[in-house]
Amino acid sequence: MKHPKELIARIHTEMQKKIVGQETLVRDLLITLFSGGHILLEGAPGLAKTLSVDTLSKIISADFQRIQFTPDLLPSDLIGAKIYNPDTKKFSVKKWPIFSNLVLADEINRAPSKVQSALLEAMAERQVTIGDTTYMLDAPFMVLATQNPIEQDGTYHLPEAQLDRFLLKTVIDYPSKEEEIQIMQKNTRGEEVTIEAILHPKDIADIQKQATDIHVQDAIYEYVRDIVFYSREEEVTQKYLAYGASPRASIALIKTAKVLALMEGRDFVIPEDIKMMAYPVLRHRMLLSFEAMADGVSSDEIIDKILANVKMR
Question: What are residue 144's DSSP bridge partners?
Fold first, then answer.
């Protein structure tokens, strides 16, 4: 197998056949995949979230299922159920979309808490329980959940425990003026685009193993600790944070920084890796206070302040 840096470059080339721009989205999708985690995507409709995931599934030769979350969705609609056959007078298990490699949970905050709890078991334990039987999910398994920040009517608040299970939260912006032109051209010319399969599940497992072997010096561990503790204890953040980042944030920062280093062809983590991953790792793990909402202070602004005040020793 080629070095991950070369494979990532090929994946980017294939993604660009379908996707215009969205470099941060593509980067975070790959980091999540090679970290063995899950990702929460937040952005307005029409910003290529579904198209990106569908394209990635073809590139890595993976099964892909999209689930539209709605208020009337049931846990059995997600994971499956025991179905009674009147002819044989026996129950059989019918497995539903969760039994895929890539699962897109579209507008996840529109589903009630029972459905979110069923998804949480799959995300946390990589298994699903139907009746009295537990089924392991095939690797790789990755949940990609989307939230529409515009419409909040008829939505359910995602529990902090479930938010914490997402490795990253990526905020997707609108394209630039030049990219808007390219999007129009690409989608109105009627040209058929063929996506080449570059990786297979075994290759992904190999890259995940290589990422765990990336060297992290003690000073980097201390730097990550100081960032996370700053979100919990320092007065400068206490005004705007009801809760700071959990220990999962520390783990996620190290894991994603290792993958980022591997993707850039290094066998060691540098402070810039931590700074780059701090935003998607921390923004959904810090609970904003009412004062922050009243003052219009965002999670990213608080992360700016944390990174400005915490220095590597």
Answer: 39, 104
- Say yes or no: domain 213-309 is CATH 3.20.20.140: no
State the DSSP H helix or E strand holding residue 105, giving kind and residue range, or none if neither: strand 102-106
Residues 112 and 120: their CA atoms lie apart, in Å, by 13
Amino acid at 102: L
Supply the Cα-derived Rg of the chain in whole angstroms.
Answer: 20
| Residue 236, strand partner residues | none
Domain definitions of the chain by residue range: 4-74+101-188, 213-309
**β-bridge pairing 39-42 and 142-147:** parallel
Give CA–CA dist 169/282, Å, rounded: 8
Total residues found in the chain within this entry: 313
CATH for 4-74+101-188 (3.40.50.2300, 3.30.1330.10, 1.10.3720.10, 3.40.50.300): 3.40.50.300
Q: Tell me, what DSSP letter sits at residue 21?
A: S
Whether residue 140 is preceded by a cis peptide bond, meaning omega within 30 degrees of 0, is yes
What is the rounded CA–CA span in Å between residue 183 and residue 165? 33
Q: DSSP string of 40-81?
A: EEE--TTSSHHHHHHHHHHHTT--EEEEE--TT--HHHHHEE
Which two three-digit tokens encode residue 312? 């590597």
Whose tokens are 């975070």? That residue is: 28
pTM of the model: 0.86
Q: How confident is the model at residue 226 (pLDDT cuts 50, 70, 90)?
A: very high
Encode pLDDT of 231-273 as tens digits: 887 666 677 887 788 889 999 999 999 999 998 889 999 999 9
- Strands 102-106 and 64-68, bridge-based pairing: parallel
Residue with tokens 């998607």: 280
Helix axes 247-263, 271-282, angle to 10 degrees: 130
